[in-house]
Amino acid sequence: MKVIVLGGYGVFGSRLAELLVRDGHDVVVVGRSLSKARALSKKLGCTPMAVDARAEPDAMFAASPDVVVDAAGPFQAYGRDPYVIPRLCLEHGADYLDLSDDAAFTAGLGVLDDQARGSERKLLSGVSSVPGLSSSIAADLCVGLDEILLIDTAILPGNRAPRGASVISSIIGQLGTSSPVWRGGVWRDQQCWSDSRNVRLAPDLERSAQYIEVPDIVLFPAFFGARSVMFRAGMELTIMTIGMRAVGLLRRRWMFDITPRRTALFQWIANLFLRFGTDRGGMRVAVVGRRGTELIRREWRLIAEAGDGPYIPAVAARAVIRRLAQIAPGARPCLAETTRTEIEQAMADLAVSTVTDEAPSPTLFQAVLADRWADLSPEVQSLHGVQDIESFSGKARVTRGDSLIARLIAWLFGFPAAADETPVTVTKMRIGAGEIWERNFSGRVFRSYCKPADSPYRFRERFWLFNFEMDLPVEDGGLRLPVRRGWFLGIPLPRFLLPKSESREYALNGVFHFDVALSAPFGGGLIVRYRGHLQPDLRQLASLT
Description:
It contains 15 helices and 30 strands. By secondary structure, the protein is of the alpha+beta class. Strands 17, 18, 19, 20, 21, 22, 23, 24, 25, 26, 27, 28, 29 and 30 form a 14-stranded antiparallel sheet that branches. A hairpin with a 4-residue loop joins strand 29 and strand 30. The two termini are about 35 Å apart. The mean pLDDT is about 95.
């Protein structure tokens, strides 16, 4: 098969060209620089070709390719006619693949679907680590699950991996911006390079990763019917992560364009640190779902050694080309077009290892309550069924105490002002085994962090410098939350200094209700009481395309 690799001497294009040569294909390396194309072609045994794909893309079809793979990018900067190359493939009777990581570009290729079907041609976008590889792995992990609650993907390259200009342009172009992310059944605005999490690929390989937008964010919610979809990327060196945050802050104040000259500057700065760190990196795809009444988490983890990480974005294209004859005609994003087995076979000659495992994934209160969880009403279970982010909205009545100590404590913790009726939203975010709870009463927000206690049937809730441990007795399908112990700056508080909590959660007529009453020590009387009802935020349209 004759395959044109556009951008074939770039970071990922050159790896793809090498893999396709190993598979016995007739590869044509195309780019603007004939000298670079010749140098790589001499090394690999390819055919060089000089074409400026922006100025004269039709010139490459003089080679009469069976398949054109666009590995050049940046795909978000293709101008007025972003799909000129796939259109030309239809005219010249060639199939088309690209390594796009741009969500809008990848999702938009479907505009050519009718033409592609009529011509019996295959046009696939995002045939790379995302969404091509990630979707194939996620599809395998979803098998046998009754409900998909979370698909969470992370890519963690080694610092010594080469950095192509198009990848740098794509990532830097996102810094300082936000984009909609499907989490907890609603689209939420997410700041790029935020929501940092530690991702462990192996006992000796754990790195911080932050949110960036990739095609998965836009495409996976509808394709998999998932309740939450998240993607993060991470740097090996802390100084690089800090630098990304600094650029993000700068672009939030001054939204400068990412020009080729500025991309080159960022690339030069990044390359100053190439000799630090390692050439070891990897990828993780995690799926949390429901199988019957059981909540489980499945993970697929890949570790690339010996500098073979940059081959991974080319693996999906290699796997697709190997089975191109079996792929249905049409123009679309590359979603689960290959199996996990085919993906892993396509990296069998690389220094890459993979592992897949499965484990229970109980929520915070499900783990704390253990056998008592089943005694809760469905409405109360729903409020504590958080695998990623969930939000609930309703109304509340707030009463405030008027003693000096009560007012001081209420101010210190940020409790809401008194109101006969006020809108309230509670948002919960899972962080490891714990959760962040955010309560928003008409714009007045206070947060706490909750985690399991050392003893069963108890949990701990941290407000600022204070930490409290609560019992969780189950009564009539609901919960009571009495304060048992407390600490300030880690120092145990004597019982007479503990606030009194007469708080409960319960269901009434199929709706979750809460009644939280906190009283001050030293006979200070009521601090705050808020009571009302909450319902899960409505599920919105699960697609942006």
